[in-house]
Design a protein that fits this description.
3-stranded mixed beta sheet; 12 strands; 9-stranded mixed beta sheet; alpha/beta
Length: 234
C-alpha cells in the first residue's frame, strides 16, 4: 500500500523578495538534510524585477535609476530563465521539494508546473497551454499568463512559478518578459468571463492543482503567524 505523500503549505501573504530568497535558501538546506518535509511557499511580492543566472540585463528596458520612481526593485538570482516581474495580485509558488524522492527529472518537473497553471486557468474557462519551443511558461494564445523559473540543487527545487491573477500589467512594459520580444502579457482577470473569487481562494486552488499533479494527498497548511513562531521569530 502506497504511503500518503505529505506537503507543508506555508501561506506567507506579501513578502519582500530578498526575505523570500533567504527563506528559500534555508529551507533548501534543511530539505537536503532531511530536517523538513517537502514544503511549498505561497505568497506575493511587492513590485520586483528579477534576472536569472544568464544575466540578460538588456531585457530591462528602463535605467535601473528609474526603478525607484515606479516603486519597483531589481534583484539578481540563481534561477533559470530570463527577466521577469513579480508583484501584487499574482499567485506565486516556491516549491522546496525533493525530486529524487518523487522520482521526477527536471524536464518533467517544469512540465508539471506548467500543467498546474493550465489547470487553474481551466477552472475559470480559460484555455491555456505550454509555450512553443523556446517559449517558457504558460500562454493564452499569444499572450503570456504564467512564468516559470526554477533552480534545482542536488535534487531539491527552489524558485518556481508566478501566475497572473490581476496584476498591474503596465510593469511588464519595462521589460522583455522572459526574453521573448513582441509578445503580450495577460491575466486571469482579462481572459475570463467569470467573476473571480477572493485571491486567497485562487491561491488555495493553485496549490490544490499542484498537489494533485505531484501526488501529494496530505496537505499541512501553515499560516504566516504560526510559521514565524515555529522559526523563533517575533
Amino acid at each position: 500500500m502506497r504511503v500518503p505523500r505529505s506537503l507543508e503549505v506555508w501561506k506567507m501573504g506579501t513578502v519582500n523578495y530578498l526575505d523570500a530568497l533567504k527563506l528559500q535558501e534555508k529551507l533548501v538546506s534543511d530539505r537536503k538534510a532531511r530536517k523538513i518535509p517537502d514544503t511549498i511557499l505561497s505568497l506575493q511580492h511587492p513590485p520586483t524585477y528579477t534576472l536569472g543566472k544568464r544575466r540578460t540585463d538588456h531585457n530591462l528596458l528602463i535605467p535601473e535609476s528609474e526603478l525607484k520612481k515606479i516603486g519597483a526593485e531589481l534583484h539578481y538570482t540563481q534561477r533559470g530563465g530570463d527577466i521577469t516581474y513579480h508583484g501584487p495580485h499574482q499567485a506565486i509558488l516556491y516549491p522546496i521539494i525533493s525530486l529524487r524522492d518523487i522520482g521526477l527529472g527536471a524536464h518533467n518537473y517544469v512540465e508539471k508546473l506548467e500543467l498546474t497553471m493550465i489547470e487553474l486557468a481551466s477552472v475559470y474557462g480559460v484555455k491555456a497551454c505550454a509555450g512553443q519551443k523556446g517559449q517558457t511558461g504558460v500562454w493564452v494564445g499569444e499572450r503570456k499568463i504564467g512564468a516559470i523559473g526554477v533552480r534545482i540543487s542536488y535534487g531539491i527545487t527552489s524558485h518556481g512559478l508566478a501566475f497572473n491573477i490581476d496584476p498591474d500589467l503596465s510593469y511588464f512594459k519595462h521589460i522583455v518578459p522572459c526574453g521573448i520580444a513582441d509578445k503580450e502579457v495577460t491575466s486571469l482577470r482579462k481572459e475570463t468571463d467569470f467573476v473571480l473569487p477572493t485571491e486567497e481562494l485562487i491561491h488555495e486552488q493553485i496549490i490544490s492543482c499542484f498537489a494533485r499533479l505531484f501526488g501529494y494527498s496530505n496537505l499541512i497548511w501553515k499560516e504566516k503567524g504560526s510559521i514565524l513562531s515555529d522559526n523563533g521569530e517575533n
